[in-house]
Amino acid sequence: MVKTVSVLGSTGSIGAKALRIAKNLGIDVAGLAVFSNVARLEEQIREFRPKKVAVFDEKAAKSLKANVANLDVEVLCGMDGLCEVAAMDGTEMVLNSVSGMVGLRPTLCAIDAGKDVALANKETLVVSGALVMERSRKAGIRILPVDSEHSAIFQCLQDCEDKKSLKKLILTASGGPFFGKNIDELRAVTKQDALKHPNWSMGSKITIDSATMMNKGFEVIEAVWLFDVLADDVDVLVHRESIVHSMVEFCDNSIIAQMGVPDMGIPIQYAFTCPERVPSIVKNLDLAQVGRLSFCKTDNATFKGIDICRAALKIGGTMPAIINAANEEAVKLFLNEKISFLEITEIVQKAMDCIKAVNSNSLDDILAADAEAREFVIKNFKK
Fold first, then answer.
1. Cβ proximity of 318 and 366 under 8 Å
2. Do residues 21 and 281 make contact, with C-beta atoms less than 8 angstroms apart?
3. Which of 69, 269, 278, 372 is the most buried (most CB within 10 A)?
4. Helices (DSSP H) in 49-173: which residue ranges?
5. pLDDT tens-place string over residues 174-210
6. Domains of the chain with bracketed CATH
C-alpha cells in the first residue's frame, strides 16, 4: 500500500472519493490540483495539509493564495502548476482524475518523475496510449486503472502469468439513461434527461458520454493499451445492474468476473493498496438482494459511439485524439443546449471523416490534432 499520494482533480467526484479513501487508510496527501473550484480546494487544504496545490485557472489561484497565506502550502497555477504537483518530491503515487485533455501532460510528468499513476483521466490513454505505455515501461512505473471496468479486468488478471491464456476481455456497460430507446425517441431528449444516469454519480461530461456510449468506446481504446490486446479481443455487453464491472474470458472458455456495488471507492482503493486487500468504507454487495443479473448486446446502430471509437483505433495515429477533441467540444455544445443529443456523435463522425490523421504518436502531433479537431467543431457547428 502506498504511503503518500497526490490527487489531481481533487474536487471532482472521483478525487473527493479518493481523499476519503486515503484518509480512511492513513495515506498522507502530498499534493492537490483542481481546475477552478478553489472554495472546495481550500477546505481540502485545511483538512489534508498538502505541501503543494495547483489551480489551472490563474485568477482563481490568486484568490486561493490570499485565503491560505497563513498555511504552510505552496499555491501554483496553470498547466505548469499541475505538472509540478504531478512530479513533486514526497509522493509515491499520483491519482489523476482531471477531466479532459488537461490531464495528459500531468500524467506524462508523473511518469517521467518515476511516480506510479492511478489513472482515472480517460483521455490520457485514448489520445496517447502508445506514448504513455512506452514511457511508463521505460520509467519502470505502474499505470493502475481507476475506471471501474479496467480495474475489474486488472483485478481478474492478477494471477494470470501467461498472456496466451487470454481469449477475450468483456467490458460491461450500464446502457446509460436511454437504454432501449430508438432513434426517433432520442430526437427530443434533453440535457436534463441525459444527465440522469441510472446507477452512477459522475460529472456531467462523462455522464453524457455514457448516454451516447462514447464512454464505452473510449474504454475499448483504453483496454487495448492497458492490457496489450487487439481491439477485436475486447467485447462490450450491456449489464443494467452495474454489479459485474467487467470480465475476462480465458482459452479454456472459463470466465472470471469482478463484482461489487457501483461505487468508485472499490477501484480507487485497489489502486492505492494493490496487490493487497484491506477493509473498505464501501458497503458490501448483497447478491441475494440484487436477485438477478442481466446481460445483452449493445445497440450499435442507435448508439454509434463504440463503432466510431473502434474505427478511430483502426485508423490509428492521431485519429483517437481527433475524435476525443471533437467529442469534448460537441458535449460542451450539447450541455449549453446549442445542439441536440443525436448531433453529438454526428459531429464526431464528421470530424473523423473530414480531418486527416497523422501516423504519429508524438506529443506535438497529438496536441496539434486535438487543436485542429476543436477548431473544426467550433467553426462548423457552434450556432
1. yes
2. yes
3. 269
4. 58-67, 78-87, 104-112, 122-139, 148-156
5. 988 899 999 999 998 999 999 887 766 667 888 899 8
6. 4-145 (3.40.50.720), 164-262+291-311 (no CATH), 316-383 (1.10.1740.10)
